[in-house]
Design goal:
single chain; 71 residues; mainly beta
């Protein structure tokens, strides 16, 4: 919310994300692209993406909850 006071939340539409290679990634979470309640994403396309993680995650990692909200 860095816009002028009272500026509405923007929208993300018609985005192509392609030809991405990530090697030796140490993150224990996947990449996330998300809208916020009432402000949804539209027509997002992912193609030709390769992510190679180092591994070493725990059985608790899949239950991680991402916090929503505006900064």
């Amino acid at each position: 919310m860095r816009g002028p006071e009272g500026a509405p939340v923007g929208q993300l539409r018609r985005v192509n994300i392609s030809n991405i290679v990530v090697s030796n990634c140490v993150s224990h979470q996947a990449s996330i692209i998300t809208g916020i309640p009432g402000h949804y994403l539209e027509d997002i396309k992912f193609s030709d993406i390769l992510v190679l993680h180092q591994g070493g995650g725990t059985s608790q990692d899949p239950s991680t909850q991402v916090q929503e909200g505006l900064p």
